[in-house]
User: Fold this.
Amino acid sequence: MNWLRKAGSEPLWKEEFSVHSADERYVTRRQLTKFLVLTSLGMFVGNLWILFRSIFHKAPVYPEQVVAQVGEIPLRGVKLFAYPTTEDHCILVRTGLDEYVAYSQKCTHLSCAVYYSQQTDRLECPCHEGFFSVRDGSVLQGPPPRPLPRVVLERRGGQLVATSMQG
Amino acid sequence: MANNDQPSPQTRGLTAIAGAMSLIAVLLIVQIWLLSAALESFLAGKRQTALPAAVFSGVMFLVCLALYLFVDRMDSEVRSGGKGR
Assistant:
């Protein structure tokens, strides 16, 4: 029943648009704590998602693929190929007379393509100087957090066949 | 003399709130580290770390929630001038 407004009170527009910008910017202790707890909930949900993916993880099925002929590449030479899909580039290195190793060419740091350095006998990522052992793909130096995924090779007659991936 | 040196209930409440909020911040940092470590292990194919990471993260979330309820209650008491005590 306030049809008549009192003299000296707030202007009508202020009463109808009662948003105080200073109050809007003010964050109380409760609001900050609530925000922190919601962030904590987000972290917990993230961990649950990882757990869910781990439980319901299906082992991938890898095809068998001929990647090279024995003796096709020279000693300490390389051959690039794609495995298990055409989007997954890999590198095959002949490390000995009858020794071959193959790894994913994707650096485990930021997915740059690694290459084999004959001078240092290691796999090197040119982007951030991450170095991998050519023997087992382990990290020798630099920011990569994990070893390179290894392509499991089998020798069948005169052919090198990729059968699966490790790591 | 000794009674004058005693902090008021409001000061004690504010100190408790600051301590609780600091503890929440520390727990949050640990949770962020835990999530990144669990994700790193998952991507590396070591899936056995996912369960303990999720359990510890859940415990830390519950502690954070309890601290939030504590801060909420203390804040109400401090704002009402310690009348609720």
User: Anything to note?
Assistant: The CA atoms of residues 20 and 26 of chain B lie 10 Å apart.
